[in-house]
């Protein structure tokens, strides 16, 4: 397999790198203070980043999946917040409509999502159904030309900011996962309300909220696929979404390595740069190896997806490994920076806080192991 980028992919990477440096980096203090980076998303829409893989006929950039993953990777090296907002918007916000929507739904939503006018969110998790997603309790009852949804969702990334919510609800509780259906719910749907904002350890500036559906009316025309197809839609989109989160984790792992390497080369103790002390040099070697292995897994999964080949196992492996690399590298980066690493003056404490959730959302590391082991045992 050729892991070199094509000229077009390289141009995309350079453009994203430049954007991250000039536009996102200066915005970080505002995000750390809690501001959602809406103005950055508008600019990203103008650059075609909000609809990288959406076909041009629906207003997207019509680029390949590897380009999309490299964009998440490059953005996340500077800001994991912008990385996750784009990943959720694209992989699990827009793709369900692109791959499971009918023509009318695609025409109505995709151009606005690709331009950044509309932001997407994915609503599967509930207070009592996280890893066991199939046990969700939100109900949708068919009332002729519309459904009535009742229930609540939790930990919804982009919630409160998104205009489009992909919502999973049971239309027949006697059928378990086969009774789950998927709906496109507009922000202003009557009966949808935005609940509390979670105060998180990291990813400050990314919104994570509760949603409640109180007799929420959703037109039948907004159901994605057939009744009962919702769980498969959720799982298929998570297969792809997990590559995006793996790329986000890869960005954090590499950023931690780069920061630690730069610091270790200029910080002198005992008469020489600490990078030349074997204890620190070995840490950098392990961090570089973890980042490189994560990179190979992430781009291998992305390449499979780009070729429309099955990638569920590889996506889970990439997420499992890259998220561990992000956590390990960010911890070691803080250690190499010593006391300075524990202060907000340097970015490594942010990397450390942002890394942990990559082992939790879009399926915990334990869920990735379940998915991988099911493939291994097939
Ligand atoms: N693609 C298509 N269909 C799939 C599938 C996939 N990847 N995985 C499962 N299915 C189908 C199965 O084939 C099965 O149908 P058949 O019997 O016809 O074959 C059906 O779905 C049920 O599958 P399982 O019996 O495997 O289902 P399960 O209840 O045991 O759950 C699980 C499997 C993998 C543990 C799943 O519940 C899971 O992925 N849990 C984690 C949930 C998760 O990732 N949540 C993330 C929330 S979103 C988020 O975090 C976004 C964010 O904010 C950043």
UniProtKB/TrEMBL annotation:
<dbReference type="Pfam" id="PF00441">
    <property type="entry name" value="Acyl-CoA_dh_1"/>
</dbReference>
<dbReference type="InterPro" id="IPR009100">
    <property type="entry name" value="AcylCoA_DH/oxidase_NM_dom_sf"/>
</dbReference>
<dbReference type="InterPro" id="IPR046373">
    <property type="entry name" value="Acyl-CoA_Oxase/DH_mid-dom_sf"/>
</dbReference>
<feature type="domain" description="Acyl-CoA dehydrogenase/oxidase C-terminal">
    <location>
        <begin position="228"/>
        <end position="376"/>
    </location>
</feature>
<dbReference type="Pfam" id="PF02770">
    <property type="entry name" value="Acyl-CoA_dh_M"/>
</dbReference>
<comment type="similarity">
    <text>Belongs to the acyl-CoA dehydrogenase family.</text>
</comment>
<protein>
    <submittedName>
        <fullName>Acyl-CoA dehydrogenase</fullName>
    </submittedName>
</protein>
<keyword id="KW-0285">Flavoprotein</keyword>
<dbReference type="Pfam" id="PF02771">
    <property type="entry name" value="Acyl-CoA_dh_N"/>
</dbReference>
<feature type="domain" description="Acyl-CoA oxidase/dehydrogenase middle">
    <location>
        <begin position="121"/>
        <end position="216"/>
    </location>
</feature>
<keyword id="KW-0274">FAD</keyword>
<dbReference type="InterPro" id="IPR006089">
    <property type="entry name" value="Acyl-CoA_DH_CS"/>
</dbReference>
<feature type="domain" description="Acyl-CoA dehydrogenase/oxidase N-terminal">
    <location>
        <begin position="6"/>
        <end position="117"/>
    </location>
</feature>
<dbReference type="InterPro" id="IPR013786">
    <property type="entry name" value="AcylCoA_DH/ox_N"/>
</dbReference>
<dbReference type="InterPro" id="IPR006091">
    <property type="entry name" value="Acyl-CoA_Oxase/DH_mid-dom"/>
</dbReference>
<dbReference type="InterPro" id="IPR009075">
    <property type="entry name" value="AcylCo_DH/oxidase_C"/>
</dbReference>
<dbReference type="InterPro" id="IPR037069">
    <property type="entry name" value="AcylCoA_DH/ox_N_sf"/>
</dbReference>
<dbReference type="InterPro" id="IPR036250">
    <property type="entry name" value="AcylCo_DH-like_C"/>
</dbReference>
<keyword id="KW-0560">Oxidoreductase</keyword>
């Amino acid at each position: 397999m050729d892991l070199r980028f094509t000229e077009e992919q390289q141009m995309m990477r350079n453009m994203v790198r430049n954007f991250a440096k000039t536009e996102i980096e200066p915005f970080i203090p505002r995000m750390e203070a809690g501001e959602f980076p809406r103005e950055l998303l508008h600019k990203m829409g103008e650059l075609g980043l909000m609809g990288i893989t959406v076909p041009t006929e629906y207003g997207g950039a019509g680029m390949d999946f590897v380009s999309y993953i490299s964009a998440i990777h490059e953005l996340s090296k500077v800001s994991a917040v912008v990385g996750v907002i784009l990943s959720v918007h694209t992989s699990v916000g827009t793709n369900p409509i692109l791959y499971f929507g009918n023509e009318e739904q695609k025409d109505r939503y995709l151009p606005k999502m690709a331009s950044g006018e509309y932001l997407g969110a994915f609503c599967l998790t509930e207070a009592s159904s996280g890893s066991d997603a199939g046990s969700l309790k939100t109900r949708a009852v068919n009332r002729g030309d519309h459904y009535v949804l009742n229930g609540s969702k939790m930990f919804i990334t982009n919630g409160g900011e998104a205009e489009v919510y992909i919502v999973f609800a049971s239309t027949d509780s006697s059928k378990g996962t086969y009774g789950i259906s998927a709906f496109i719910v507009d922000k202003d749907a009557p009966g949808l309300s935005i609940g509390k904002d979670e105060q998180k350890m990291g990813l400050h500036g990314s919104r994570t909220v509760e949603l409640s559906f109180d007799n929420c009316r959703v037109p039948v025309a907004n159901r994605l696929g057939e009744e009962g197809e919702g769980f498969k839609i959720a799982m298929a989109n998570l297969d792809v979404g997990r590559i995006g989160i793996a790329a986000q984790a890869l960005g954090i792992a590499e950023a931690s390595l780069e920061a630690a390497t730069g610091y270790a080369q200029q910080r002198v103790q005992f008469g020489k740069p600490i990078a030349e002390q074997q204890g620190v040099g070995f840490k950098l070697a392990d961090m570089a190896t973890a980042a490189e292995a994560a990179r190979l897994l992430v781009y291998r999964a992305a390449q499979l997806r780009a070729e429309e080949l099955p990638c569920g196992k590889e996506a889970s492996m990439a997420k499992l490994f890259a998220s561990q690399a992000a956590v390990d590298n960010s911890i070691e980066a803080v250690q190499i920076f010593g006391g300075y690493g524990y202060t907000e003056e340097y970015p490594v404490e942010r990397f450390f806080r942002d890394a942990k959730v990559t082992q939790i959302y879009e399926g915990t590391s334990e869920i990735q192991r379940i998915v991988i082991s099911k493939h291994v045992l097939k």
